[in-house]
Design goal:
Number of helices: 6
Largest sheet: none
Radius of gyration: 14 Å
Strand content: under 5%
Shape: globular
Oligomer: single chain
Helix content: over 70%
CATH class: Mainly Alpha
Number of domains: 1
CATH architecture: Orthogonal Bundle
Structural class: mainly alpha
Distance between the termini: 24 Å
CATH topology: Globin-like
CATH superfamily: Globins
Number of strands: 0
Length: 137
């Protein structure tokens, strides 16, 4: 992965961290709008969804931080992908998640979500989701 791609993703994620709770809510709202059937694999209560959102942002933060050391990150992503099978996540869901993620970043970053930043995130998410899917299916 190119260093510039990593830098763009890491720098932009630093700007998302202060609004992590809001970003998680935006993400799940967008995800469920894109595919309402996905609601069935997530907790029902607001409190549980807030916890889920925290897990999402923590995992995403760890993955973004780990982009400089793919040898360490890949096994973590493989294990995460395997766990998602137990949650009834299907390979097609990864595309929906990617769309929701990019849309969330666009909302959260506003004008700072430049075409270069969008492209960098698309590449990083594509790599991460490919590792997760390959390990699981």
């Amino acid at each position: 992965m190119e260093q510039n791609t990593i830098m763009l993703v890491q720098d932009s994620f630093e700007k998302v961290k202060p609004i992590a709770d809001t970003a998680a809510k935006i993400f799940y709202d967008k995800l469920f709008k894109l595919d309402p059937s996905l609601k069935s694999i997530f907790p029902k209560s607001e409190e549980a969804m807030a916890i889920q959102g925290n897990k999402l942002m923590t995992m995403l933060g760890s993955a973004v931080a780990g982009l400089n050391n793919l040898e360490m990150l890949v096994p973590v992503l493989e294990n995460l992908g395997k766990r998602h099978v137990d949650y009834k996540v299907e390979p097609s869901h990864y595309n929906t998640v990617g769309s929701a993620l990019l849309s969330t970043l666009e909302t959260g970053l506003g004008d700072e979500f430049t075409p270069d930043v969008k492209d960098a995130w698309a590449k990083v998410y594509g790599t991460m989701s490919s590792v997760m899917i390959k390990a699981s299916y």
